[in-house]
Design brief:
The complex is a heterodimer of chains A (about 575) and B (about 700). Helices cover about 65% and strands about 5% of the residues of chain A. Chain A has a two-stranded antiparallel sheet with strand order 1-2. Chain A has a two-stranded antiparallel sheet with strand order 3-4. The longest helix of chain A is centred in the C-terminal third of the chain and has 36 residues. The radius of gyration of chain A is 23 Å and the shape is globular. The longest helix of chain B has about 40 residues. The two termini of chain B are about 50 Å apart. Chain B has about 700 residues and is α+β, with helices and mostly antiparallel strands. Classes of the chains: A mainly alpha (about 575), B alpha+beta (about 700). Chain A: It comes from Plasticicumulans lactativorans.
Chain lengths: ~575, ~700
Amino acid sequence: MTANGIAQISLYLVTLVLVAVPLAAWLERVGDGRAGPLERAFGPLERAFYRLLGTAADAEQDWRGYAAAVLVFSAFSVLAVFALQELQGALPLNPQGFGAVAADSALNTAVSFVTNTNWQGYGGESTLSYLTQMLGLAVQNFLSAAVGLAVMLALFRGFSRRETATLGNFWVDLTRATLYVLLPLAFVLALALAAQGVVQTFAPYVTATLLEPTVDSASGQPLTGQVIALGPVASQLAIKHLGTNGGGFFNANASHPYENPTALTDFLLVLAQTALPAACALLFGRVTGDRRQGWAILAAMLIVLAVALFAAYAAESAGNPRIAALGVDQQAGDASPGGNLEGKEVRFGIARSALFAVTTTATSCGAVNGMHDSFTPLGGLVPLALMQFSETILGGVGAGMYGMLVFVIVAVFVAGLMVGRTPEYLGKKIEPFEMKMAAIVVLLMPAVVLLPTAVAAVTPAALASLSNPGAHGFAQVLYAFTSMGNNNGSAFAGLNANTPFYNLLGAAVMLLGRFGTIVPVLAIAGSLAAKKTVPAGPGTLPTHTPLFVGFLIGTVVIVGALTFFPVLALGPLVEQLQLAAH
Amino acid sequence: MSRKPHPRFDAALVRQALVDALKKLHPRHQLRNPVMFTVYVGSALTTLLFLQALSGAGEAPAGFILAVTLWLWFTVLFANFAEAMAEGRGKAQAESLRRTRTHARARRLQAPQRGAPQEAVPSDRLRSGDVVLVEAGEIIPGDGEVIEGIASVNESAITGESAPVVRESGGDRSAVTGGTTVLSDWLVVRITANPGESFLDRMIGLVEGAKRQKTPNEIALAILLASLTLIFLLVTATLLPYSRYAVEASGSGQVVPLTVLIALFVCLAPTTIGGLLSAIGIAGMDRMIQANVIATSGRAVEAAGDVDVLLLDKTGTITLGNRQATEFVPAPGVGTERLADAAQLASLADETPEGRSIVVLAKERYGLRGREIHELDAHFVPFTAQTSMSGVDLPGRQIRKGSVEAIERWLRAQGRGLAPLVRDAADAISRQGATPLIVAERGADGGEVLGVVRLKDIVKGGIRERFAELRRMGIRTVMITGDNALTAAAIAAEAGVDDFLAEARPEDKLALIRQLQQEGRLVAMTGDGTNDAPALAQADVAVAMNSGTQAAKEAGNMVDLDSNPTKLIEIVEIGKQLLMTRGALTTFSLANDVAKYFAIIPAAFAATYPALDALNVMALASPRSALMSAVIFNALVIVALIPLALRGVSYKPTGASQMLRTNLLIYGLGGLAVPFVGIKAIDLVLTGLGLV
């Protein structure tokens, strides 16, 4: 590790907090209907939407109505994105003339973008038309993030309201989150990115003549030109990060120079993918009337994030023990960056790739600027473990906060018992119904990760996709299902996932991981909203103290570790031990 | 507490519990506890694997599978034993209460009056509404209400208190408890409980695992534990295909045997808390019984841990039931000694505690010896509700003592009034939380006020400290009194309660409880009178005094056999302890898993991935001894924690944060560290004895 690397990571952490504070205040204003000038500008549009949807700004839904609206809307979205991919050959804005996408891949992609996973089994620049990218994928980048925000707001209302059956209106939350939060932020960021050199064009791809002709290794044909892919990238890139989507315009994602041209864009992208999740934690404190609660949850998230950042950075800086055994100096110095530079964004160095890898997996973004597959086993274990904490460390937009609150409920339950009271959080008693729903969420994630991984481990068709044998190959499969089950979308690479097996099983995993959490979370929200609020007293467990923050971290980490220790032992851990043993 | 608590482990109880532990192996019983049921199924599976190994086609040596199997069964049995121990202790307590009346025969009356025709029936056949006659020397056959007669009753069978109490029809002393004995006279009692529904029966139901209803908190915890169990089931089940992949990929070792996976699962599943959960709940009820409190539901006991407001009656709870004379304040122109002498004379025949305290004070202060009332040719005038006065008539003089209003009326009848200075003195005494008692004399020259006796409420010793303790626990105390606001404020300040409700009528009490509950608070109170019943029914934790009326007992959800209003504090502690024990053992159980992973994962995959031996941080001798040590530790830790489950974790009234810190240190960090030591120790013993 170098001083420069540590400084860059520290600068990021401080900037994140500075950005999250005003963002949370803005989110609160949007929630309260005080969006000011934007509301004056977009108000007519907003009301037109409501008339179109046959609802009103003050029409309230109970949790079942809210959940039904989420499910209906998402089902419609999957169909729309699927249809766009199948029909793109006959639709405009298709300068490369791409045809219909294979059905299993199209389904996987549709589900992937609607569930905010943005797992990509396809290569964007070689498969999808500009129209599909813009109208299908980019639109879902907005809407899937807005759905996450809406569900989170409903859960917040469960805590802040008392003795009521309703949680707000999904259509209103969806519309306002899109119009007043995501669109303005994405607009500003897209301009900044384009100014830095991210491409934004409808022009067809450009072919450059090679100075030194070469031979195609696969076909043996001589090559004289290189096709350079273009497209409306900046507009899609901003929301890809802000909405913790992560699906790259290009297959190489943020390691492509047109998607991430400068060190500044790299910093902005990392900041963008973590800003809203961090602000959501602070928003929770504002909505529930006790800002310390929001800070406590953000502190828990950032502590784990910081530990993960420095762990990944340390692992990558230490390099490969087998290379060290050959007597090669892997220390960073003036002449070399040191460490394991394989698969890194070489322009920005190890620290920035570690930062990108950790933030993209802590949140459910999944964009990459390096190849996680090429990290050292321990360095690769960090992103894997972060996803296995069930999207609680920042997590997806909205999704991270509602995922974390489920763990807060579990932590409060055990801690509350230890202070001799039936457990309560923010004055709401945690009773069998809440526990049942929380248990479904906690149980679901290991199920959608471990079971498909087990199926793949004994299915020849699945094993044929591995690029490495042994423990590393196992880690590739494990990473794929961990990423999809937690709606992350980053890939370990090295796994050929565009096969019917991974496309179809993956689609099921992503749907379960997303809506298997959303429905119980809304049920919890409904149950909490109906409860009385117990006033806090000296016998109440305080949930804003460092002690509770520590306990919450312990709960998330222990549950994650106990669930995944064996698979991590059989994957990255044993791989690292084997490297060290030789 | 007058009855001795049972010893935690006496030989007969342990023997009975061992037998019960075996009986509880019935699958129907096991199904009640999902965590232990999975262990039960696992044990059955390894038993089959052992039989398969005996036939020569086993996945591992038969001896090894047998050893694992035996210890898995022990795990189930130890959990059964814990529950049986808790049940046994509770039942022993309850039985000793119940024994007396099962054999009693009752005389049922055909009509609710003493002279009605009667028939003999066994007491356990009496139904609610039956009327029975009980005469001196007979045992009261069931809980009920006196409708005719007055008698002294020995209630020591229930309360342990040997002094007899009076029970009579009407009023607040009409409730009788089955199993107590009439000492003198007779009673006609209307039975109020059907067979099997009396307080005792309900309480016995709470200490029997099979009949016990789980409380909401217990259900919520069981859901959490069940979901963790399912996660670990997933984790271990998927290890089989992972292991197959690993063996094929690395080309060495063999697929993990099922026996090892089942053992790993049992070690990871929260068996420690799962096995002790039922025992913890029952033991909470046991502790209630030991405190001489009968709870009618487990839910009430848990609610006691949540109480944030305690309503306490002033008289008998905060102050001693009777006031004491502490000062003589003479009227202008009257000597203190004269006042003291008159007050003493008026009180000589007064057997109330107040009266006696006046005699004593006069003697102590002024050396006035108590005189025999007949020597003085005196005639004692007792207190009546009409006059609100008492006193004495001596030849040529009448002395009266009473409230300001009563004496004023008496004087006015003689054409005299109350001196303003005396009235001021009386008001001043009121303001200080005491009661003024005016003494007046009517001699040859008419009526004359002599002065005021200050009767002070005596706050019970140590009560202030108890309230401070409650405050630290986060519980607010509210004193309920019929006194005026001035007096109430003064006593409240002296006793250290947080708040008071003065001039309270029963409906005020009910309104206060409703208002507090509306704010989301949990309210506890004690009561004994019929007019307390509505408030008792409304309160979340309502403790009725055993000496109280049947209506009060029916309305409450607990009965204190000692009729001690400060018992509420103990009840709250027991409730908190119950919840804390659950939380502490859940934390301990989960923290244990870390060490178990470090023992079993390297052992299970040692042949496939020798590099994983680096995770064998305890340096356990061999894969087999590592696995056995973890399984044995997992079983033994249940036994080791039985005393803690029965006793409850120690409770000190401190703030919530401090309590969490302490318990996390002990059960969280302890739970992490203990198994590392324990598993290593067992491994040393196993290898030392050459058993593996």
